[in-house]
Write a structure and sequence with these properties.
Layout lengths: L6 H56 L6 H12 L2 E5 L5 E4 L15 E3 L6 H6 L23 H20 L4 E5 L5 E5 L4 H5 L6 H4 L3 H20 L50 H19 L7 E6 L13 H44 L14 H49 L7 H29 L7 E3 L1 H11 L1 H6 L3 E6 L6 E3 L1 H17 L6 E8 L4 H5 L4 E4 L31 E7 L33 H11 L3 E7 L3 E8 L7
Parallel strand pairs: 8-10
Antiparallel strand pairs: 1-2, 1-6, 3-6, 4-5, 7-9, 10-12, 11-13, 12-14, 13-14
Helix pairs in contact: 1-2, 1-9, 7-8, 9-10, 10-11, 11-16, 12-14, 14-16
């Protein structure tokens, strides 16, 4: 049988499919759960790391060195519960929050580089405390020479507050916000610039650069112009917002306005401005690059040098992550393959153990089909297959017993039919040859043999009908005493010939039974015929009947009893397994008291105890030579048992060797006789 069609193949396929689905589902669930947990943990850690990075970035932007950063590092470590370390780019330690005497070594990869002139835009974007980054990635808190002194701050603060008050009076919500350099600016709620322009709240004085800013801006312009000059380009003028081009409306240095009273501003002449200059896209990119380079060069001496930032746990671990690298993918695939291999291997072992006894059963069934007598299989364990094997062995043994019984029955039937046929043939051949005269004695002998042959055939027909379940009975109320008298009268002549006394001892209180009178007379007649045949001259055969309640003492007093059959059962075993021999198994034990018992007792030689279980088997005879003088066909008692069962009763036998035998028929009782 192909593996794909066998039970083992299907078991392997199902197991592999289930294992693959289980592995895939488990892996998917584990990846989803782990990835979600890691993303959540990474999000929290990244937010904390961004806050740490932003704080240290602000320190570097506002201090020219890292001296004194230890306090800031330890405070951040206490707030985040992490280990924070700063080193130079050559990995010389600047600050470390580790509390151990010998801190764990730092990981080879830094978490970030703290450089206010080159901000990490990812961490800066996640910071909740940062001020944003410029297009050139310089931290806005790195102001350097643009930091205003106190006098200029105060002056600009007053201008900003007056401007905010003017806007508030005009119906605009405005507030003063101070930047990292100390310059204040007016921030309005909402966006209506055209309405602001229609008011008299001018901010020209507030927007103009101060002396400090002008000085720093001139230096920045000089650095940027030098860069542009090296590229063969013209210089530019930057405002305090680092814009250039037509957006710049800065007055010349000699025309810089000075604060004047508010009531004189309307009469003041407008400042002169330079005509706008046209810039191409390439010019803008070159200017932006030079401005960024100039700013870095200008701020380099005002900020701390770049430092490596290490963030991890106290034990030295870094931020947890989930790296589905080729190596990890190979590990997952290897584990999945190992699980599948183990599943397939286990399935092979389990399937082989499951299929092996099935193969043995198949082989035994084939041997049974081929006619081999021994077709049993070994039984091990107590599982379903073991019980199946045990049931198969029982079936095989039962089949062997039936086959043996069939063979014995064929042999016995052939023997029983051969004898009368041989006698008839012999007498006819003798008459044909003139050796015997066809006188009345001759005819009588042939008739006797024919009757014997007909009797055997009738008995076989009755047994076949009983075995097929088509033995029909027609029950009607029967008076047991009258039936026993009829049977005794029918066998009286034979008893007189054998010099055996035949008597009836029926109890007058015996209830009627619902039985087929013809079949019941046949059964009792077989018992009487068998008893007369095995009772020596001068002996007695007694027919008696009584209710089941009255049989207890009598039946219990006998020994060597056997009862065969039961309602709806068939005892065809030649070994007599259905019978039980021994004291106390008589008619009165274990039956309802309303039953009627019919007994035929004789004073013959009795039956040996070892033969008692087989007396109701077909063709069984105590005299093994099967002589016609000492026994009948061997079917009479088997028919008695079948007839008793057809009436819902049982047939039994009790015997004591050398004293006699008692054969009984127990039938369900009916209503008492009126």
């Amino acid at each position: 049988m192909p593996l794909r069609r066998s039970l083992l193949g299907r078991l392997l396929g199902v197991s592999a499919l289930v294992a693959a689905c289980s592995v895939a589902a488990t892996a998917w669930l584990a990846v989803q759960t782990t990835s979600g947990a890691i993303r959540q943990e990474q999000g929290r850690n990244l937010a904390a790391d961004a806050r740490i990075y932003d704080t240290l970035l602000g320190y570097a932007a506002q201090n020219p060195t890292w001296n004194g950063v230890d306090a800031t590092v330890r405070k951040l470590a206490e707030e985040s519960g992490r280990r924070i370390a700063l080193t130079t780019q050559s990995r010389q330690l600047l600050a470390d929050s580790a509390t151990a005497e010998v801190p764990p070594p730092l990981p080879p990869q830094a978490s970030a580089v703290v450089d206010p002139l080159s901000v990490d835009t990812v961490l800066a974007a996640r910071s909740t405390e940062g001020q944003g980054t410029a297009a050139d990635r310089i931290d806005p808190r790195a102001v350097g020479p643009f930091l205003l002194p106190a006098a200029e701050r105060t002056e600009l603060r007053q201008l900003a507050e007056r401007h905010a008050i003017c806007l508030n009076r005009s119906g605009f919500a405005a507030d003063v916000v101070v930047g990292p350099s100390g310059r204040p600016r007016v921030q309005m709620v909402g966006n209506a610039p055209e309405r602001v322009l229609s008011t008299k709240c001018e901010s020209f004085d507030l927007d103009a650069p101060t002396r400090t800013e002008r000085k720093a801006l001139d230096a920045l312009n000089g650095l940027a112009d030098a860069c542009l000059e090296r590229q063969g380009r013209g210089g530019v003028r930057l405002d305090q917002n680092l814009f250039w081009g037509d957006q710049v409306t800065e007055p010349r240095q000699e025309e810089r306005p000075v604060p004047v009273p508010e009531d004189a501003r309307e009469a003041r002449a407008a400042p002169a401005v330079e005509p706008p200059r046209e810039f191409t896209g390439e010019d803008d990119r070159a200017i932006a690059s030079c401005v960024g380079t100039a700013r870095s060069e200008q701020l380099g001496s005002y900020v701390a040098s770049p430092a490596l930032l290490f963030i991890g746990d106290e034990g030295g671990a870094t931020v947890p992550g989930f790296d589905l690298s080729p190596a990890n993918t190979a590990k997952i695939a290897g584990v999945a393959a190992l699980v599948l291999a183990l599943t397939v291997g286990t399935s092979v072992l389990a399937g082989a153990r499951l299929v092996r006894p099935l193969h043995a059963l198949t082989g035994a069934a084939q041997r049974m089909r081929d006619g081999e007598e021994s077709a049993s299989v070994p039984v091990s364990g107590d599982d379903e297959i073991a019980r199946l094997a045990a049931a198969f062995n029982d079936m095989s043994a039962h089949r062997a017993r039936l086959e043996e019984q069939r063979r014995a029955m064929v042999s016995d039937v052939a023997h029983e039919l051969r004898t009368p046929l041989s006698n008839i043939r012999g007498w006819l051949e003798a008459a044909q040859d003139g050796l015997a005269d066809p006188d009345p004695a001759f005819v009588s002998s042939l008739l006797e043999e024919a009757v014997q042959l007909q009797h055997i055939i009738d008995d076989l027909q009755d047994l076949a009908a009983a075995d097929a379940g088509v033995l029909r009975v027609h029950p009607e109320p029967v008076r047991v005493g009258e039936l026993l008298a009829q049977v005794a009268a029918a066998h009286q002549a034979r008893a007189d010939t054998a010099e055996v006394t035949l008597r009836v001892a029926a109890d007058g209180q015996v209830p009627e039974v619902a039985a087929d009178p013809v079949r019941l007379r046949q059964a009792v007649g077989n018992l009487v015929s068998n008893a007369v045949r095995h009772t020596p001259a001068g002996g007695t055969v007694t027919l008696r009947a009584y209710g089941g309640g009255a049989a207890g003492g009598c039946a219990a007093s006998r020994s060597g009893a056997v009862f065969e059959g039961g309602s709806g059962s068939d005892s065809g075993s030649p070994t007599g397994d259905e019978g039980e021999s021994g004291s106390g198994a008589g008619a009165g034990s274990g039956f309802p008291s309303g039953d009627v018992v019919i007994e035929v007792a004789d004073t013959g030689t009795g039956i040996p105890a070892e033969d008692l279980p087989y007396v109701f088997d077909r063709f069984w005879r105590a005299e093994k030579s099967r002589s016609r003088r000492t026994g009948g066909s061997g079917l009479g008692l088997a028919i008695v048992r079948k007839l008793a069962e057809a009436h819902g009763g049982t047939a039994g036998a009790e015997s004591t060797e050398g004293e006699g035998s008692v054969f009984s028929i127990r039938l369900p009782g009916s209503a008492p006789t009126p």
